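Give me the fold.
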Amino acid sequence: MPDLLLELFCEEIPARMQRKAAGDLRKAVTDALVDAGLTYEGAREYWTPRRLALDLRGLTARSADITEERKGPRTDAPEKAVAGFLRGAGLSSVDEAEIRTDPKKGDFYVAVIKKAGRDAEEIIADIMPGIIRNFPWPKSMRWGKASREPGSLRWVRPLQSILCTFGPETEETKVIAFEVDGIVAGNVTRGHRFHAPEPITVRRFEDYVSSLEKAHVVLDAERRKDIIATDARNLAFAQGVELVEDDGLLEEVSGLVEWPVVLMGEFERDYLEIPDEVVRLTIKTNQKCFVCRDPETQQLTNRFILVANIDASDGGKEIVHGNGKVVRARLSDALHFWKTDQSDLPDLGELTASAEKFGLDLKKPLDQRMAKLDRLNVTFHAKLGTQGERVARIAKLAEELAPKVGAESKDARRASLLAKADLTTEVVGEFPEVQGAMGRIYAERQNEDPDVAKAIEDHYKPLGPTDDAPTDPVAIAVALADKLDTLTGFWAIDEKPTGSKDPYALRRAALGVIRILLENKIRLQIGSTLNFAAEDVADHIRDPRLDREFKIAGELEASLGGDSLMDQVIERDLAKNAETFEGSDEVRSKILNDLLSFFHDRLKVYLRDSGARHDLIDAILSPEDDDLLIVVRKVEALGAMLDTEAGANLLAGTKRALNILAAEEKKDGEGAFDGAIDKSLLSEPAERELANVLEAVSGHVDAHIAKEEYAEAFAALSELRPAVDAFFEGVMVNADDPAVRVNRLRLLSSLRATTRKLADFSKIAG
């Protein structure tokens, strides 16, 4: 079968976009080919800073012929109906339609539409212009004279050439001819920008790769990463140091070069006075370079590793020199920021009120920064107050949570008060990525309790699916308080995620809460915790329009005298806040129930990603469940029961009972069979046995649930299996006697009620 080689060559593709863009290209092309009736054996995408490439193997040479039958109206239907059918089917007259006969409906028209297959070359030429024009770049641009014309091509950077060849391994390939904005597809590409800028003619993927390699281009990004990592480790080892691995930086750097050349630079040792995190971030952020450490002490050294995109004639000396100058300049700035943060703030006298409010010690640098954060009235959100107000809420909630997660309340409060203090430091102002980490470092320097210092850094975690959740009790308390306050606040002002939009990262915050609770096996009633958080949030909800009115009223009061205007605005402001959230228990309950439902949705995502069956989650989870650890334990126990023969058979029998009940309740009404069982009407041995077993098992299940022994509760439930099987083998539910029928349906209703103490079996597949 033929193979397809495609390359889109442009000026530059930002490193952060390359991997996704290559995947988008593969998906768009393969989806379009399959939709057109072609099949393929395999496809793999490639990318460099200047090109996206696709190697597609085993593509069918032609799509299959298709015959489609389209049913039309009866032959005696009105003329307009027949004419509409003919137009829709593409027929010119009824003579081109077949007449079929149905015993019930009589004769009717059928259009037999035959669509001939198409050559793969034709299909490729047809789909590619649209794929290129509609490529989903996050940001794109127009260029050249054509940019003035409506509908001109938009791309991430100027598209320069398109390579598209097609053909089997044993024959000469063909160029698939198509055009996009004056760029005609061909069989020509280019190599390295400086080492081999001349055109290169290629036929298929194998000589494409080898030709690029000769032209100083390593096509495979994973191979570029391996070259960089291996050469960097070897170079560091040769100089007696150790490379500090950084997968994110490695991914980025591999997207900046087509021909990686690893070099080493150095800077003055004086800069090692700066914390390692700042040195590393400075060099990484500004120069995309790796740092090195002493293999014995694990402390950073004054060496760094850079990756060039050229084999320089001087062995890279000028490249190393230029990078070194920039690194030194940036480290000089960082050293200045670091020293400034260790000094007293010049406006200490203005911070006394804030210090007293939070119980801060203005002799300590980090306490000064927290007082400054409050004194500046830095806005957290226009409707949710300042950062200082938010810190007060987090501290109160963390104190409430501390005993529930095994932390000391005073430590949780202290960590909460200092958690956001580093936001006003010079270092974090320049390098926002080190917030939290710098707070920990500054806390350690002023001799805070180690648990408090660690919580300051860890309370932001987990930042993503690959980030570890905090495990220290103080950090857990502060992290939960931070995230729950955020969620409660934004739900209160109706700023929830919509579709793919989540500007405040609320999905991540909810998932963070879930991971912290489950991974640390913490029992927490989320509903009551959210309600506690909501009490303080309500005090700080504000309408920005009322703030403006408050300001205007204050100015008028100053100029006219008196306080009537101010009193009116304050009264209205308080009334508005009460109306939106605090004053109405019904409104607040609705908001918090919606937020709990959001947690349930995130829990489902988390459990499905962990391998749990979605139907088991749905069977266990009810709207009022707010102890997520218990939900997980129940899901695990249900899965374990269903993995047994008794559990699988019980599921089948219970679902049969549920189906019978559903059908009969449609006739008699929902809940018609929820009454007590009349044992005097139980004439068959199998139904008497089921009634007795149900009574015993129900008691056992209740006892285990009371002790939160869910595995044992489900095991007790599976003991119903023999009695349920025997009942359906020997008893007719819908007996002729109406009283017996109702009594047997009540027996099935009792079975449903017993199983629902643990799960809704109707939601389980199988």
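The chain is about 55% helix and 10% strand.
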